[in-house]
C-alpha cells in the first residue's frame, strides 16, 4: 500500500564504528588524484567473469587537439605508472597524440622498419631456441628458411607483431605517464590489420586509446571558498516533537486493541481497510486502476494520518465496520512516486474491522517498561529527548553535507572518462547487489542474471545522472583537499586501518591491506574537506 509518506534518508559511510557524515561512495584516485582505478571492491563479489569485463564504447567524434613527437629510442625510466617495462629500441618511434571527448587520448604510433626488423630477429632467435627440428640439435643455428617452413611463416609474423607491441607500447605511453587511468589502456587497431600492415610494408602503425585524469574546472574559480548554502530540515527530526512521538509509540505498545462495536471511526482508533483506487477521467473508457494505491487488510492508525495521502484521514473518519466509502483525492506534486504526482483519483474504502486502544495510565509505574533502566516517567522523557537531540544533530550535519556536496557538483565542469563512469557505476551496482543478496539470498541462477553484462549496462544507463553526479562530487572533494593542502593525523589513519583489518579478520573475510588503507584515507580526506567547507560556508537552515 503506497499511501505512506517517507522521508528520504541520506547515505552515511561508517568507518568501523565511527560515523563519517559524507554522502559519497569511496572516491576513486590514483597516486596524484582521486582517480585510482581499482576493481577490488567489485571483484570481491565473486560474480561471473563477464560481469567485470570492460565495456568499450567507440565515440565517433571529431578530435579536439593533436600533437606529434618522436620518442627517443634511449629514453630512460625502466617502467611507467602503468607497469609497462621499457626496452631500448634501435630507432625512434613516432607518436601523434590526439585529444578526444570524455578525457580520452588517442595515440597514433608509427614504428620504423629498423625496430620491426630488430623484433623479427628476436622472435627468430627465440623460436630457434625452443623449436625441436629434426636433424638439428636443440639451441643450434637453423637456416631461417627451414625454421620458417617448420614453425610457419604466419606464426612468426604474429609473434613479431606481438613483440613489436610489447616493446613499443611503453615508449608510446610516455606522454601520458601519471595521467593515464589504470586499466583504461586499449589498442584500438585490430590485430589482423596490424598483421597486414607489417606484412606489406615491413613496418607497423597502430592506435592506442587511453583515458586520462580529467581536469576539474570551477565555475566560478575558487567558488567553493564562498559557498552560500540553504539546508532544508524535515520537521520530523525536531528533537522535542520526535521524543514526544517516540514516547507515545512506546506507550501504545503497552496497550491492547479491542473491537469497537457501538460507534464510528474516530481519532485514536485503528481500522482494517480494503482500499482500491482508479483515475478520474471525463471519458469512462479512459479510467484506469491505480495498483500502487490498492491494499487488502491495511491497518490504518488514525494517529498516523499525517503520513498518508493528504485528505485520506478526513475522508475515512466516521466510517463504520462493514461500511464502504468512496471519495476523490489528488496526489500532491511532492509525492515520492513520480508517475502519481498530480493524478486525480477516486478511492473506494471498505472498513473490515474497527479497534480502539486500551492503554494503561502513563505514570512512573510504566517507566521501566517504557525504557529499561528508568525509574520515573520524567527520566524516560529526558533520556528519549537526549537521544533524539543526538539524532537531530546527526541529521542536521548530514543534511548540511548533502547540501554542500550538491552545490559542489553544480560548480564544476568535468569531462568524465568512460572508464571512470563505468567503474563508479559498477561500485554502485555491486553495493546494491550485495544488499539484495543479503536480504533475499539469491540462488546462483538469479545471481548470474543480475550480474550479466546486460543487467550491468541497463543499470549504468538508467543511473547515468546519479553516477555522474557522484563522480563530480568525488572529484570536487579531492580537488579541494589538494588545493587547500588539508591534512589529517597519520596516527588516525593507522588506527582506522588497524580497526578495519581487525573487522575483516573477525568476519574471516579476505582483504587487500593496501586497498583498505586507500579507502580509509579517502574517507578521512572526504570528511576533512566537508569539515573545512562547513567552517567556511554561509549556511542557512529552513524547517519544512
UniProtKB/TrEMBL annotation:
<dbReference type="GO" id="GO:0003755">
    <property type="term" value="F:peptidyl-prolyl cis-trans isomerase activity"/>
</dbReference>
<comment type="similarity">
    <text>Belongs to the FKBP-type PPIase family. Tig subfamily.</text>
</comment>
<feature type="domain" description="Trigger factor C-terminal">
    <location>
        <begin position="376"/>
        <end position="533"/>
    </location>
</feature>
<dbReference type="InterPro" id="IPR046357">
    <property type="entry name" value="PPIase_dom_sf"/>
</dbReference>
<keyword id="KW-0413">Isomerase</keyword>
<keyword id="KW-0697">Rotamase</keyword>
<dbReference type="GO" id="GO:0044183">
    <property type="term" value="F:protein folding chaperone"/>
</dbReference>
<feature type="domain" description="Trigger factor ribosome-binding bacterial">
    <location>
        <begin position="94"/>
        <end position="233"/>
    </location>
</feature>
<dbReference type="GO" id="GO:0043335">
    <property type="term" value="P:protein unfolding"/>
</dbReference>
<protein>
    <recommendedName>
        <fullName>peptidylprolyl isomerase</fullName>
        <ecNumber>5.2.1.8</ecNumber>
    </recommendedName>
</protein>
<comment type="function">
    <text>Involved in protein export. Acts as a chaperone by maintaining the newly synthesized protein in an open conformation. Functions as a peptidyl-prolyl cis-trans isomerase.</text>
</comment>
<dbReference type="GO" id="GO:0051083">
    <property type="term" value="P:'de novo' cotranslational protein folding"/>
</dbReference>
<dbReference type="InterPro" id="IPR005215">
    <property type="entry name" value="Trig_fac"/>
</dbReference>
<dbReference type="Pfam" id="PF05697">
    <property type="entry name" value="Trigger_N"/>
</dbReference>
<dbReference type="InterPro" id="IPR036611">
    <property type="entry name" value="Trigger_fac_ribosome-bd_sf"/>
</dbReference>
<dbReference type="InterPro" id="IPR027304">
    <property type="entry name" value="Trigger_fact/SurA_dom_sf"/>
</dbReference>
<dbReference type="Pfam" id="PF05698">
    <property type="entry name" value="Trigger_C"/>
</dbReference>
<dbReference type="InterPro" id="IPR008881">
    <property type="entry name" value="Trigger_fac_ribosome-bd_bac"/>
</dbReference>
<dbReference type="InterPro" id="IPR008880">
    <property type="entry name" value="Trigger_fac_C"/>
</dbReference>
<dbReference type="GO" id="GO:0015031">
    <property type="term" value="P:protein transport"/>
</dbReference>
<dbReference type="GO" id="GO:0043022">
    <property type="term" value="F:ribosome binding"/>
</dbReference>
<dbReference type="InterPro" id="IPR037041">
    <property type="entry name" value="Trigger_fac_C_sf"/>
</dbReference>
<keyword id="KW-0143">Chaperone</keyword>
Amino acid at each position: 500500500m503506497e499511501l505512506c509518506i517517507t522521508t528520504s534518508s541520506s547515505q552515511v559511510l561508517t568507518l568501523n564504528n565511527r560515523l563519517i557524515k559524507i554522502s559519497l561512495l569511496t572516491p576513486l584516485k590514483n597516486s596524484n588524484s582521486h582517480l585510482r582505478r581499482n576493481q577490488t571492491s567489485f571483484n570481491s563479489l565473486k560474480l561471473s567473469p563477464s560481469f567485470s569485463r570492460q565495456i568499450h564504447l567507440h565515440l565517433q567524434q571529431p578530435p579536439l587537439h593533436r600533437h606529434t613527437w618522436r620518442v627517443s629510442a634511449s629514453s630512460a625510466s625502466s617502467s611507467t605508472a602503468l607497469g609497462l617495462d621499457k626496452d631500448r629500441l634501435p630507432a625512434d618511434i613516432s607518436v601523434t597524440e590526439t585529444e578526444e571527448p570524455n578525457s580520452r587520448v588517442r595515440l597514433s604510433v608509427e614504428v620504423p622498419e629498423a625496430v620491426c626488423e630488430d623484433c623479427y630477429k628476436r622472435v627468430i632467435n627465440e623460436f630457434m631456441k625452443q623449436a625441436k627440428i629434426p636433424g638439428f640439435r636443440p639451441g643450434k643455428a637453423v637456416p631461417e628458411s627451414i625454421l620458417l617452413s617448420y614453425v610457419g611463416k604466419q606464426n612468426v609474423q604474429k609473434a613479431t607483431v606481438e613483440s613489436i607491441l610489447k616493446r613499443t607500447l611503453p615508449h608510446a605511453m610516455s606522454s601520458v605517464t601519471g595521467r593515464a587511468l589504470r586499466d583504461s589502456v586499449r589498442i584500438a587497431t585490430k590485430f589482423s590489420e596490424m598483421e597486414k600492415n607489417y606484412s606489406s610494408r615491413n613496418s607497423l602503425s597502430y592506435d592506442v586509446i587511453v583515458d586520462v585524469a580529467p581536469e576539474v574546472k570551477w565555475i566560478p574559480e575558487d567558488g567553493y571558498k564562498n559557498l552560500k548554502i540553504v539546508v532544508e530540515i524535515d520537521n520530523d527530526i525536531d528533537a522535542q516533537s520526535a521524543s514526544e512521538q517516540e514516547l507515545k509509540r512506546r506507550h501504545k505498545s503497552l496497550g491492547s486493541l479491542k473491537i469497537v462495536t457501538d460507534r464510528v471511526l474516530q481519532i485514536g482508533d485503528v481500522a482494517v481497510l480494503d482500499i482500491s483506487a482508479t483515475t478520474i477521467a471525463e471519458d469512462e473508457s479512459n479510467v484506469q486502476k491505480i495498483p500502487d494505491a490498492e491494499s487488502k487488510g491495511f491497518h490504518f492508525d488514525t494517529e498516523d494520518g499525517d503520513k498518508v495521502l493528504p485528505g485520506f484521514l478526513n475522508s475515512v473518519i466516521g466510517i463504520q465496520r462493514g461500511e464502504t466509502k468512496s471519495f476523490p483525492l489528488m496526489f500532491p506534486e511532492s509525492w515520492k512516486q513520480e508517475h502519481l504526482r498530480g493524478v486525480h483519483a477516486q478511492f473506494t474504502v471498505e472498513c473490515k474491522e474497527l479497534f480502539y486502544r486500551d492503554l494503561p495510565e502513563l505514570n512512573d509505574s510504566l517507566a521501566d517498561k517504557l525504557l529499561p533502566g528508568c525509574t520515573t516517567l520524567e527520566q524516560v522523557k529526558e533520556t528519549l529527548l537526549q537521544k533524539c537531540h543526538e539524532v537531530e544533530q546527526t541529521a542536521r550535519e548530514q543534511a548540511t553535507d548533502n547540501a554542500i556536496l550538491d552545490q559542489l557538483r553544480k560548480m564544476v565542469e568535468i569531462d568524465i572518462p568512460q572508464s571512470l563512469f563505468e567503474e563508479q557505476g559498477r561500485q554502485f551496482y555491486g553495493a546494491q547487489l550485495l544488499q539484495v543478496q543479503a536480504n533475499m539470498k539469491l540462488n546462483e541462477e538469479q545471481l548470474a542474471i543480475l550480474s550479466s553484462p546486460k543487467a550491468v549496462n541497463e543499470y549504468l544507463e538508467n543511473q547515468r545522472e546519479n553516477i555522474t553526479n557522484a563522480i563530480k562530487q568525488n572529484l570536487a572533494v579531492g580537488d579541494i583537499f589538494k588545493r587547500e593542502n588539508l591534512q589529517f593525523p597519520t596516527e588516525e589513519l593507522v588506527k582506522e586501518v588497524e580497526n578495519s583489518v581487525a573487522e575483516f579478520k573477525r568476519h574471516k573475510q579476505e582483504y587487500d591491506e593496501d586497498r583498505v588503507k586507500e579507502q580509509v584515507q579517502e574517507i578521512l580526506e572526504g570528511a576533512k574537506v566537508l569539515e573545512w567547507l562547513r567552517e567556511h560556508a554561509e549556511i542557512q537552515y529552513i524547517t519544512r
